[in-house]
Amino acid sequence: MNDTYPWPVFEADTVLPASVYDRIVPHAETPEALLAKGRTITARIQQVTPEDRLPGHKQPYYLRADRSERYLVAGTVVNVLARAADSGDMFEMATVTGGKGAGQPVHRHAQTHVALYLLDGEAELWLDGERFVMKKGDFASVPEGSEHGFRFCAHRTKMMVWYAGTEALAAIRALGEPTDCHVQPDDAEVAWDRERMAAAERAGDIAFADEMFPELPARAITRATLPEDTVPYTLAADEGRKFVGGPEYFALLASQENTGGKFFVVMSQGPESEMIPRHYHNLHTENFFCVDGALDMIVNRSRVTLSPGDFASVPAGAIHAYRMACPFTRFMGFLTPGLFQNFFETLGESGYEANVYPREPHQLRFDRVLKELESLDLVVIEEQMRELEAAEAERA
Ligand SMILES: [Fe+2]
Q1: Ligand 1 centre and the CA of 221: distance in Å?
Q2: N or C terminus: which one in the chain shows less Cβ crowding within 10 Å?
Q3: Which residue range or ranges hold the Cupin type-2 domain (predicted)?
Q4: How sure is the predictor about 50, in pLDDT bands with cuts at 50, 70 and 90?
Q5: In angstroms, what is the span from residue 319 Cα to ligand 1's centroid?
Q6: What single DSSP character describes residue 212?
Q7: Is a pLDDT exceeding 70 seen at residue 212?
Q8: What pLDDT is recorded for position 311?
Q9: pLDDT at res. 9
């Protein structure tokens, strides 16, 4: 261990079965090479004190709502939550805020799987030749190559956009200008310029359709279950594949089965709760976005409380834990790659029927988690952290 580190490093010591790597890592590195690299990265990442800004490379950070790097794009404000550089070339993420009539014309990304979640207001959604009315809480999954677009139909609308790719944000940025605005300016112009659209196509992974917002019959989003394959789909608010574990209820909005293993999206909700045990992951990045209530988080040796609209990114290696800090807290998790999905099925019970967290906490199957630890990409270090803190307190 490098003795300039201010505190001990808990090294990655979990060896996952090769089949797990085969599923999630579509390149030629051997599991041994990956693991060796993982140890080095873990050592560095666990020293980082997260700050409220985009870091420019892969390390833990958080962002207060609507205060990140922003672009004014045809009457919307695009607030960047993650660039390719901040995620180690794994993903990009943004919120898009705007008023009635603003949006993004129909387009597709050749190499980027997109997920959309409507945080506020109402929108029309074009997806794969269909048109939907998207209400607050509705979700859409858009695999590579699928046509999609949206247009806001309420005066205050906000869309979460997740890009499992690294080239989409460059295209979106080329469509607009950097801005100091936090919401769309009162004189915002909702106009689409074909020249800029062509520039965006040259700048990144985007190709616009000939018709921007085709007239099609619009229908409500009512789908309640997830498809088993990587196909475009919509999902109605508060639906998905549901699990209950302890006081919390989890709904998968996208699963690794329908994202080609690239990521999954999970909405967690619960009452005020205890901090879960501190842990880290060797392989996957977890992104937390607070939707309702408040989420207390520990990231490495810092504490940060996320309010609605706030975001935290926790890459592989970073120590973390959370507790729900309000009687009704809800947060979205974007986890990539998707291998950690099995955790929810192992810790909780599947087939939960209700649409709200349970009145009485259900059982947490830590026994099952402990048995599956090696394949779950989970290193629990609560005990080691307590020992470390006790030793520090004694010295002080
Ligand atoms: Fe975690």
Answers
A1: 31
A2: C
A3: 100-154, 271-323
A4: very high
A5: 8
A6: S
A7: yes
A8: 98
A9: 34
Distance of CA 280 from the midpoint of ligand 1 (Å)? 6
C-alpha of residue 12 to centroid of ligand 1, in Å: 14
**Which domains, from first to last, does the chain contain?**
38-48+238-388 (2.60.120.10), 69-229 (2.60.120.10)
What does the alpha-carbon distance between residue 320 and residue 304 come to, in Å, rounded to a whole number?
A: 11
Q: How many angstroms separate the CA atoms of 157 and 159, rounded?
A: 7
Lowest mean pLDDT among 97-101, 284-288, 366-370: 366-370
Largest CA distance in the chain: 70
CA–CA dist 353, 221 (Å, integer): 20
Burial 370-382 (b: 16+ CB within 10 A, else e): eebeebbbbbbbe
Better-predicted residue by pLDDT, 264 or 24: 264
CA 190 – ligand 1 centroid, Å? 40
* Centroid of ligand 1 to alpha carbon of 281 (angstroms): 7
Which of 116, 140, 155, 160 is closest to 290 using CA atoms? 160
- Ligand 1 centroid to 380 CA: how many Å? 9
Say how many Å lie between the CA of residue 378 and the centre of ligand 1. Answer: 8
CB proximity list for 344: less than 8 A, separation 6 or greater:
243, 245, 250, 252, 266
331-364 pLDDT per residue, tens: 999 999 888 888 888 888 888 888 899 999 888 8
Instruction: Quote the ligand 1 centre to 327 CA distance (angstroms).
Output: 22
Who surrounds ion ligand 1 at CB < 5 A?
286
User: In the chain, what percentage of residues exceed pLDDT 70?
Assistant: 89
